[in-house]
Amino acid sequence: MAEPTPRRHEPRLRPAPLIFEPAEAASDPEHFFDLESMEDPGALLARATELALAFQAAADRAVEFQAVAAAQLADPGRFDRLTPADIAARVEWTEDYAKKMVEFGRDLLRGADTEGRSPVDPV
Q1: What whole-number distance in Å separates Cα of residue 13 and Cα of residue 58?
Q2: Cα–Cα distance, 48 to 33 (Å, whole number)
Q3: What is the CB neighbour count within 10 angstroms for residue 87?
Q4: How far is it, in rounded angstroms, from Cα 11 to Cα 108?
Q5: Helices 41-73 and 95-115: crossing angle, nearest 10°?
Q6: pTM
Q7: Of 61, 79, 86, 95, which residue is most buried, by most CB within 10 angstroms?
Q8: Main-chain phi, psi angles of 5, to 5 degrees
Q9: Nearest to 64 by CA among 119, 3, 1
Q10: CA 15, CA 55: separation in Å to the nearest integer?
Q11: pLDDT (tens digit, 9 = 90+) per residue, 15-28?
Q12: CA-CA-CA-CA torsion sign (98, 99, 105, 108)
């Protein structure tokens, strides 16, 4: 099971690198990061776990970027600001979820302001 994403007071661990999948390999539904060719179950478990953690970390980071973008798009100071309903329609969320993401993004942005760093660290 993947560990929760570290928050601001915990250092981020760098996940295993995701190796680029060539187009011909990606088109084969049985091919997945060359895992299907691994013979040793111990090595397979280790690499599959690395990939699972890397994908989870990437998903967590992407959600943080979504939240920051939603908060920025909903900023009342923008002349072209969007409502939560507009944001929800763009990314196929419910309006309630969009409201929560806007608040989460605002929290991330506020945390960045008080800690003197960018809202989402790319690492």
Answers
A1: 12
A2: 9
A3: 23
A4: 16
A5: 90
A6: 0.65
A7: 61
A8: -65, 130
A9: 119
A10: 8
A11: 555 555 555 555 66
A12: negative
Which one, of 21, 26, 119, 23, lies nearest residue 71 by Cα? 119
Sign of CA dihedral 114, 56, 91, 23: positive
Q: What is the pLDDT of residues 89-120, one digit of tens each?
A: 999 999 999 999 999 999 999 987 555 545 55
What residue has token string 């088109």? 27
Q: How far is CA 88 from CA 16, 17, 91, 93, 99, in A?
A: 32, 32, 6, 4, 9
Tokens of residue 108, six digits: 């991330």
Q: Which two tokens stand for residue 112?
A: 């960045």
Length of the chain: 123
Distance CA 6, CA 13 (A): 8
